[in-house]
Design goal:
Elements lengths: L11 E3 L6 E11 L2 E8 L2 E8 L2 H15 L10 E7 L8 E6 L5 E2 H8 L3 H18 L2 E2 L8 E4 L4 E4 L6 E2 L25 H17 L10 H11 L1 H5 L1 H8 L6 H82 L2
Antiparallel strand pairs: 1-2, 2-3, 3-4, 4-6, 5-6, 7-9, 8-11, 9-10
Helix pairs in contact: 3-4, 3-8, 4-7, 5-7, 7-8
C-alpha cells in the first residue's frame, strides 16, 4: 500500500471527478486490497474503501452495482460514490468507493456477549443471504466472521467487504485458510455455492469451539468431525455441518431447510412429550370430575333421604298426638 492504510482521523478526501468531500473519522479495518474508513459525508456517516489497486476497486464496485439491481434483496452495502483521490498534484491517485456504513457488532463478539445458542439462528440468516448471492451468480469467497456484522433491533447478520466476491465458475480471488476447503483438503478453490457453504459450516465450528486450529496429520475431515462431536451445540447440528463440509449440498436453500428441520426436532420431541401427557391429565381430570359428580349425587341422595325420613317421623308424631287428643275428648268430654 502506498498510503491507503495510513490515513489519519481528520483527513479530508475530495474526489477528483465528482468533487464529493469526506472527512475520515477512524479506521474500520484493512485487507489485501485496501483499507476501510468511517467517514463523515454531506449525507451522514458512510464507509469508504481506499486502495492503490484501481482494478480491485473497479471489480468491487461492479459487484455492488450488480447487487443493487437485485430488487428486494439486500446482498451487500449500498454503493454511494466511486472516485479517485490525489494526495498532491502529480502524484498517483488512490481509488476509492463509498458505501453504506452498517453499524453493528462483529459476529464472534456478538456470540461471546449473547451466547452460543445464537450461532444456528445467525447461520440460518446467513444461508438466506448466501442463497440470494448465489442466485445472482456470485460466490462470496472470503467468508469469515470478520466479514460479518450483527445489527440490533432486530438482530440481523449482514455481509460486508465484497473484496473476495467471485463469479461462479471462476477461481476464488481471496480466502482465509481456516475457512478454505482447499486448505483442509476437502475440495477445490473453484467458485461454486459449496465453497461458501463449507465456510459457513466452519464459521459455526469456529464460534462453537471458541478458537481456530490447524489441520494435523490425521486428515482434515476427521479433525473437523471430531471437533463437531466434542461440542454439544455443534453435535445437535452434526448432520447439517458434515454435509456442508463434504460438499453434499446443491445450494444454500437446501442447507437452510435441513438446519431448520434439525433445530425443530428437539421442539417436536418436547411437544410430543407434552401431548402424550395431556390424555392422562384429561383422563385424570375427567375421573376427578366423575368422582365429584358421584359424590355430589350421593350426598344429594342422602340429603333427600334424610329430608324424607325427617318428614315421616314428624308426620307419625303429629298423627299420634292427634289420635290421643281425639280419644281424650271422646272419652272424657263427650256426654
Amino acid at each position: 500500500m502506498k498510503g491507503a492504510d495510513k490515513v489519519l482521523p481528520g483527513t479530508k478526501l475530495k474526489g477528483k471527478w465528482h468533487g464529493n468531500e469526506y472527512t475520515v473519522i477512524k479506521s474500520l479495518g484493512k485487507g489485501a486490497n485496501g483499507s476501510v474508513y468511517l467517514v463523515q459525508s454531506k449525507n451522514g456517516l458512510a464507509a469508504l474503501k481506499l486502495s492503490d489497486n484501481s482494478m480491485s476497486i473497479t471489480s468491487e464496485v461492479n459487484v455492488l452495482k450488480h447487487f443493487s439491481k437485485v430488487q428486494g434483496k439486500s446482498l451487500g452495502p449500498h454503493l454511494y460514490d466511486t472516485d479517485d483521490w490525489e494526495l498532491k498534484s502529480g502524484s498517483p491517485a488512490l481509488s476509492f468507493y463509498v458505501m453504506e456504513y452498517i453499524k453493528g457488532v462483529p459476529f464472534l463478539e456478538f456470540i461471546r456477549a449473547r451466547g452460543a445458542e445464537w450461532v444456528p439462528v445467525l447461520l440460518l440468516q446467513l444461508l438466506g443471504s448466501l442463497s440470494n448471492l448465489h442466485d445472482a451468480g456470485w460466490v462470496f469467497g472470503d467468508l469469515k466472521p470478520e466479514n460479518l456484522i450483527v445489527t440490533d433491533s432486530p438482530v440481523t447478520v449482514k455481509i460486508i467487504d465484497v473484496g473476495g466476491t467471485t463469479g461462479i465458475g471462476r477461481s476464488i480471488k481471496e480466502y482465509t485458510e481456516f475457512f478454505d476447503r482447499g486448505y483442509w483438503g476437502m475440495g477445490s478453490r473453484k467458485a461454486d455455492p459449496g465453497y461458501d457453504l463449507f465456510a459457513a459450516a466452519m464459521i459455526a465450528i469456529n464460534a462453537g469451539v471458541g478458537e481456530r486450529f490447524t489441520k494435523d496429520s490425521g486428515g482434515g475431515e476427521k479433525l473437523l468431525f471430531d471437533k463437531i462431536e466434542s461440542v454439544p451445540l455443534l453435535r445437535k447440528q452434526k448432520p447439517v455441518l458434515e454435509k456442508a463440509l463434504t460438499g453434499k449440498y446443491s445450494g444454500a436453500a437446501e442447507m437452510k431447510k435441513d438446519l431448520l428441520s434439525c433445530l425443530a426436532k428437539p421442539a417436536e420431541k418436547e411437544n410430543s412429550r407434552k401431548s402424550a401427557s395431556v390424555p392422562k391429565q384429561t383422563h385424570s381430570a375427567a375421573s376427578q370430575t366423575r368422582t365429584k359428580k358421584k359424590k355430589k349425587t350421593v350426598s344429594k341422595s342422602r340429603r333427600s333421604n334424610a329430608y324424607s325420613s325427617g318428614w315421616m317421623d314428624t308426620f307419625i308424631v303429629v298423627s299420634g298426638v292427634f289420635i290421643l287428643y281425639a280419644l281424650y275428648i271422646f272419652h272424657f268430654l263427650l256426654p
